[in-house]
Amino acid sequence: MKEIDEFLTIFKYYKANKPKPSSQNVITVEDERHYDKVIRFALKQSDDARTQRLGLKKMEKWHVYTFQSHPGLYLIRNPFTSLGQRYWIRKCLEDYPRKPNRTNIDNEINLEDWWQACYVDGASDQTLIKKLRWTTLGYHHNWDTKVYSEDNQSALPRELAELTDVVALSLGYSTFKPQATIVNYYHMKSTLSAHTDHSEVNLEAPLFSFSFGQSAIFLIGGQDKSVTPTAILLQSGDIMVMSKESRLCYHAVPKILLASSSPWNEEVNHSLGEISASFKYINQPEELYSNMIKNTGDEWNRFKDYVKESRININVRQVLNESQNSLAGVVFNS
Ligand SMILES: O=C(O)CCC(=O)C(=O)O
Ligand SMILES: [Fe+2]
Questions:
Q1: 86 lines ligand 1 (CB under 6 A)
Q2: Any transmembrane segments, and where (predicted)?
Q3: C-beta separation of 220 from 251 below 8 A
Q4: Domain contains 57
Q5: Whose CA is nearest to atom 8 of ligand 1?
Q6: 145-175 pLDDT per residue, tens
């Protein structure tokens, strides 16, 4: 007997505009109506000297949640400062889509620098701006074969590796190694259909997913599509971590919603944090701070315009097993 695709039923429900779907069953972690579905989680450490330099608040201010229906799934509810959000949004637009990283646009046009090409003589090319749907960094995700390969990779940005390391350690994942990243760019009508992320050799390592800009309804179900998925609201600054039993669950984004607030546009107050912090990946931590504080006034305007009607998701994965240094000789299951 063919199993019923419960996932698709719920996906279509939230994707539809008419009738407008109810938000009653969409879990908003801080909403007390959902207190029976959500559990507060105590972090494994009190702070990390690197937090403020990376645009994060001190860990004592973080709110971390787990989900009754999904062991291994964590949501860190916006631990970023306003300037921190701006820093990461800008990285995703100005730096990460640059060559040698890959983007969906490469199949159509050969662009060294997408963001620069979007603004010629001060005018914006809205068609080109809207064209970018993904960028891959580190080991490049191959969208057709779903197989990573040793000769298909670019460097993983050091600041992104550092950020993920801080988050991983806060949850007790001390051996996590960031090796592949997909940045997804969504506009108000974009969706991402049901899938599992199973291309990595190491499926035990958690997956870290950062959201910025407009909000999303995120669906997470079970290891097959017969399981009715749970709907969770992801807002700007939220970090979702898929680990253990949740790592291989079907998930999707059926809907982008206008954010109820714009934390990236809030009052700017950001302190440098501990000067003595030692970094694992970054060689020049001073640059982090100068790049963080420059995102005000005119410098910030183009990025601010972009996120007014877009959502950016960065997801970071470990590809290799603990004992591996490369993919040489690795046979994939497909
Ligand atoms: O946009 C999201 O929140 C999810 C993205 C995702 O699942 C993926 O890139 O594999
Ligand atoms: Fe995914």
A1: no
A2: none
A3: yes
A4: yes
A5: 315
A6: 888 998 888 999 999 999 999 999 999 999 9
The pLDDT tens digits for 43-75 are 978 899 999 999 999 999 999 999 999 999 999
Q: From the CA of 251, how far away is ligand 2's center (Å)?
A: 6
> Ligand 1 pocket test: which of 142, 186, 211, 253 has the largest number of ligand atoms within 8 Å of its C-beta?
253
Domain presence at residue 106 = yes
CA of 184 to the centre of ligand 1 (A): 7
**What are the two backbone dihedrals, phi and then psi, of residue 224, each rounded to the nearest 5 degrees?**
-135, 170
CA distances from 44 to 48, 167, 169, 173, 289 (A): 11, 11, 8, 9, 26
The answer to the question of residue 85 being in a domain is yes
Cis before 19? omega within 30: yes
Number of domains in the chain: 1
Amino acid at position 321, single letter: N
What is the complex's ipTM, to 2 decimals?
A: 0.99
Total residues found in the chain within this entry:
334
In a domain, 329, yes or no: no
CA distance 291 to 157: 14
Q: What is the DSSP string of 252-277?
A: EEEEEE--SS-GGGS--------TT-
CATH number for the domain spanning 15: value is 2.60.120.590
Q: Measured at the alpha carbon of residue 138, what is the angle toward residues 132 and 139, in degrees to the nearest 5?
A: 100
Q: What local confidence, expressed as pLDDT, does residue 217 receive?
A: 98
